């Protein structure tokens, strides 16, 4: 099976321990993560060949990020080295009614200053079958958006399946363009889109409508807007999250293939160990399922939602749940018994 | 706005990590706290000028306590230095059906041996509008009780609003007097009293009656007893706690202004990160609300109860929730979403 | 009161912190535990004289295990020293829908190579009234099984009460014999057996029947099978566990004295701090209760089930809950209030 | 005694524990420091009123820095809030022949974008007698250099003593100007300069000469260059460091008052716990000494050098040695006996 | 071989990690120790039966101390339970020229309030051959001094060897008596005394003389003073310490049998991991050697001094060096090679 | 440049922190290492393509080892999966006169049970130029020895340079053969041998002679023995270590090319952070140097010895010093200055 390539930013994540507030912390756990890389880790963890393309500064912090990529069995053959710093995000993990806080410190990161024509996408995609990107990358800088467009175009030209996660972060998008000026051009090449309808309307500059996810019969019309503007689109998926509180989520998912809505049952997720990266876990689960020959759509959405649920029990950005654990949960066994 | 002064003891808190029992611990987290100081931190955290008056030993442990006071933006201009030791409490944090355990080791602390006529209360209260104390201080020693009385009298004379938290701790009160011999004299100057009715009856030496907090109509008669004995009293408040288990509380609150009962809706608080100091968080929220020009009573009790709830999600004695977080919860949003 | 002796293996337990997966861990918490030793710790914690018989390697790791035995007030007077290594188990603590994982690394441990005729059981049992063993020991090796049989026979001969925990671990039993070839001979001397009916049928080579623990009336017939094959049997007990997820269990218990079924009410156990050793906590609670003169059977099963529940709130293999805490829970108070 | 004001940047310092290399670290100790702030902490620690002027971002990381300032008893009354981020430096602590590594990540920090005319220096200096700055601040950005010049000019106009630490960091000075274009104008107002002669010649654009610190007779001529260009200069001081290895330094110092060279004896410093901030400790010790009425020059250089030595034994940027500890070492007692 | 009994206080020791100053610490390592208990641990570690007599409060902190006693294979059969608190000492570990700091918080500890006639010394000493106490115990309170005298008298009466460590701590001795009023009566029963001559003269109220330990010929006359006042005295020993700095000590020792001075060669001890308890390690080594049939005096002082040196490499109060390690060092091999 | 292949065991290393003895440890740092893997990490760290061949159990602990291999940029393409367990070694890090202790727990590890004809060595060596093994592997089991011989023979046949580290561990070699029965056959293919002469004589069954490394003129005759029995031998190297104590080593090295002795100057190494793996660091430095076109022999031994020295400052088994750091030290600069 040919590899899956993802492109984006990997950040140093500095998180407080034991639910401490920032002002109480005298140390930070240092891990690494970022939406598109998290998807690559999920896939590698499932045994899929995965490669991550990014730009890292030539210093010890950049080297730490590289070592993290390699540790999780993700190829780094086309990582570009340059720039001044690795982007950082600070994370304070909430509990109960107190939500987690993320402070971004990612301006002027190595990837923000990436230049077009410096990544040899033809070579990157030579032995690849799938390309994944998300809306975080074009939100970083106009340079990053331009390179993302390069990648999408080349992937499309070379016949790869392209998946796009809308991933809207309002605190990014500071370089002078709005999502609707950038995202439609990027999204048009997609075969798979992950995102909720509100974000989709906003990012594509469409009029806002109120989706009612409980009423599945009402959804196809709304999703069809995306099918209209993306000629190759095969699937749209949405992660459904209801936040009881920071430690208790309800998670489901919807997959729509242009004809039928497939629903993953809503599951209680409590306690939440770490919810950062749970959308990426969903995406990783979805790509994995759609890479299988069967492409059983009900199983695909069940697997993606189960992957998302299990991610909430794992510290850090990555979904390190195994295929077996996810399959067992997707099949309805949420008992979490001791394996011994 | 003029400052709020609180007076009492700050202790070294030595707590086990990760729900370990004392016998399993090879280290203790070292933080600092104490009822009246916790209220000062809450207020400083909300942007109110707050000052804490206490007595600290002249050694490195006393200096650590002083640095903690300053760190949290609380003034320490009238802290007295002397005595032999800082009081200590050991804390083992429970979980589920296992309750937390507190072991007090606070006898002969610096403040237990404080002398009357050594704090210049007139200077302390010069630019203050509010004085807060609690029933823990007169429980420590007859000296501490005497200085507390000095403070209350001077605050009253200088026209400050006085708030009193009954805060009964049965393991204190060892110096030969019972609460009912000490507390009535202290309480009579109060404008605001926080406490449950059982404690109020006990501490004021009144006959025990069975309050039924579900039946709010029955409460005014009971609260009126306090109004009768405290001529300046404007508000009595009670924190309502139902303990499902150590990790799951239900929290509400009642505010009574002599005419009307204001109720804060009962909220589920789970998981509990740390419940020590949650009463002080309630008090801090209440004082903050009553310092506002509006003095909206329903909002005041909602804010106080929400402050109490959020404290449960924060490690240590202090309520470090922000005004925004508390207001959001008081307004009914308990979703705890990630802020990024 | 004469002492209780338990015999079995104590292992080094290496567990990840903070719910980390193995691949994320850069250190392991190092504690010690093992089914029969855990029972001894429970009893010593309740004030009963307890002794643990095992075999430890003569190296620093074996010495650590010995120090752990002594620390928890368990006598180690007949511990045998020899062999090459202490058995190890790695533990990754799950959360929510992700179950905990145990990896055994206990082959060729000191006790696996224990020889018959090397423990002076007559001396061990001289001042003892009770002997406890579990199905883990005969599962380790044929040597361990043979020494276990020695012990059971001598204990029986010397008139001790014998309790047996079936404790089936499918990943052990690698030395060529099946449980049904070994266990019936060992079990026949039992006065008390702990285990569920499925395991009992399997280990005694009986035909499988489907017990319905909700329907208590149906159980005596099934339990009577054990009474038929164990002439001295007085009690059979079963721990009832329903796993909502790894962080949420429902725990009850059944005690049958050959005539009547005694039921402990099902209790919610959430959050789970550590469920390893909870069966041993049940056993410890049961032995403690049956050692009391009263032998009140309803109280016994209540106490055993409450001990099991409280164990889930305690990190490590041992039930370090106090008599008071367990009695309070057994009496129905699960509020987990702060003790101060 | 009137206060001492310092102006500059405070950074988040992220350091690896236990001499780990960056690639081995899974967490960072999070402390705060920066040359001019470190001097303020030294002085506050000695009981001198000290104030630190800086610019902090309005986010939780900026608030942590503010709390650190307050904790160490340094006034923060004129701190400006604004900008996007707090500067960061990563620190890997070396040992033996492996030197420590610092990675700066401080571009676009809050203070880098400070604007002139936004700090009310007249108010800052109202009750001050001394102003201290260092060459790090004008190295950050042209804005920071401009505000530094504002400060120096106003301090000079208001009659404060001005101390300047040359503090050359080659990895800063990226904004297009060389030190020699900026520093001479700033330095001309100095009363006290700390720095070695090489740096002084380089920063003032003078021809390089080879100072021989062993040959004290040769030094006045070289130092006199600085006296020539700084009309108010009273003292020049140099920290002498000989690095045996990262864990073993030899530390001395020179003070020159335009007439006489005062030498502090070279001391062995081993082991080195943390040498970052040792120059600031020297500066803090020197300012403290020169603030004393006596202004005993030999004592001043002895105290400054002893402060520098003791800083090497303290983790973090700050010199937290007490007056007594430094005086004892300055007086020749380096025995480091247990105080009990 | 019959057991060795020691009597005194065991304290909770709260120490900062990584050489942090108290003001930097957010947690404390929690261990237990105390001069006489440390000696018992040394002996148990060497395989000698040892028992420790003390008084512990009946709370969880007292129970932790008890568990520590048992863990290190020291008998606790005559420990008395009562009193309010366990004594505490805070420890900040120095480095280089910065000495360690100890803050005592041990007033009103359980043992300070011990009563005479409550320990059954006859039973304690029934199967004992040696009793050890130190000058710390009579320094705590008059009660502790009185019980110490009880013990010494009974030990003497029952024919035990009695060793006494002078152990002067100036911050104790607060209860109104001076050492010279208390110690001579206690010391007169000694067979072995450990201490330096200055302390001996001070504690026995003798005129101060200046011992010159380099000049061994001059020492017998000075030591003979002790022999004069203690009729049963067989040995006096002195630990020689020269403190280069807190991380570098030079350690030797002297043993005098009333006739001959035996010298242990001065050894370099660097780095120092923890020097607290090193005198107790010396004492433990000396008792061990004198318990051997040979009583080779040169070997005894070599072993005691080597035990003292090795203690400096071990964290905590206890000397956990093995017999083999100490013997190897006593025999001159200080190479510290890896044992594998 | 073609890759370097190493073959051997990777173990889980469980080490105590902060110089704690085993009995004091409540957690272990978990890292991974092993002689031949350590060499591969060194080379990868210097930018050389390196591959490690081993056998790992198919469980999470084996997967952790695999992730460690990948993290450090070492290829794992021919790692075999199977067997029951990963070998373990426990490490207690000494200090000063107390040596470190290693406890092996590596019997029945995955690689001990490796079978011949299961590694496709021809494929492994296809793009390789150098093969490295050490005497640890044939010491594990006869199976491991047999596979090692397979590897050496195929490497020789395919023209690779072969380096052999004698690496004698007396606690291994338990399977019934002595080194002299196994090693000569393996060593005969060597081009480079690392080891001291004593070990060489012992392992090759030669008569013991006393080498005098100070007298370099005497060495060629002794080394020539190895040249006689290894027809392709080009270089013999010896690491010279003088252990002042566990924290202070003196390190040098000798390289002999059959004609000339090249000496690396003895260097003081203090403090020692971790000396495990320092021989492998020497080997890695030597291979790196000999891979350079120049093959300057004096530079080679200088670089190897400097690599060995720097390893002592790094925690864990690996030499993570950079090329620049080693070259700087090899060139004589041991000042360990801060790089910023």
UniProtKB/TrEMBL annotation, chains A, B, C, D, E, F:
Domain Carbohydrate kinase PfkB: 1-310
Family annotation (InterPro entries): Carb_kinase_PfkB-like (IPR052700), PfkB_dom (IPR011611), Ribokinase-like (IPR029056)
Keyword Transferase in record: yes
Keyword NADP: no
A Pfam cross-reference name: PfkB
Molecular function terms, GO-annotated: kinase activity
Sorted UniProt keywords: Kinase, Transferase
UniProt similarity note: Belongs to the carbohydrate kinase PfkB family.
Stated name of the protein: PfkB family carbohydrate kinase
